[in-house]
Amino acid sequence: YMEGNGYLVSWCVGHLVELSQPEAYDEKYAKWRYDDLPILPEHWQYQVSASTKKQFGILKKLMQRKDVESLICATDAGREGELIFRLVYQQASCKKPFFRLWLSSMEDSAIREGFAHLKPSTEYDALYNAALCRERADWMVGINASRLFSCLYGQPLAVGRVMTPVLAMTVVREAAIAAFVPEKFYTVDLELTSGCTASSRRIPEKNVAENLLKACRKEMVAT
Question: Residue range 33-59: average pLDDT?
Answer without folding.
Answer: 96
